[in-house]
Amino acid sequence: MRKVNRLPLPSAALSYLKLRQQQANRKLVDGHLDSSKEWKSARQAEAMAEVIATLKRMMGERERCMYCLDSHGSDIEHFRPKAAYPKRMFRWRNLLLCCTECGRFKGNQFPLQGKRPLLIDPSKEEPWRHLDFDPDTGNLSARFDLQANAYNPKGKKTVKILQLDRREALAVGYQKTYRRLCKKVQRFLDKPNLSADKLITELQEADEHGLLGWCFIGTGQDETPFKEFKQQHPSLWQYCARALGY
Known about the structure:
two-stranded antiparallel ribbon
């Protein structure tokens, strides 16, 4: 998982979303809003094709799911479920790109701690502040907070809901990406003749699952060969971290 930068939506599509939200709000007040029917009707409009196209552009050429980054993002997902939050049904910032499996696991689940969501929104926050990765199993887990002496609650709920610690194919994909990143860093350590920008490009190209966040701000920075990279080339490490957005 990685943080996703939300792109601006073309004005025509944004206007369409605003119009449909206004219509839905009126029906809600009148007491006859069917959120599933309303969304299905709106989804067929040409403007919605631009919505999903923009979500896919946010994910780059591979158009991966924003939750797992492993499978192809196949449809629009409501971060806050439309049935429980009809006033956010057509809000651009509530729409994500999701694969079939993550969508099935999440469903209408949306746990809260007070008013605070306990599900990671990759378009608004850095997932690796909440998550950890196990290179031996390939599974994701909640990050342990030493100060609180407890596992991160948002990480726990996200892992549980999306079953990020129980999906074998997902784990295999994350392990492959981890090994690719290790090879890139180890090769640099053996022959540190790459320019900083070239190294960054190679790391980005190898990172299909957003693991660079774990490597630079998570517990991955204490793992070989990232630990050696940080110790032997501290200035370059900091430069790479800044350039990668960490």
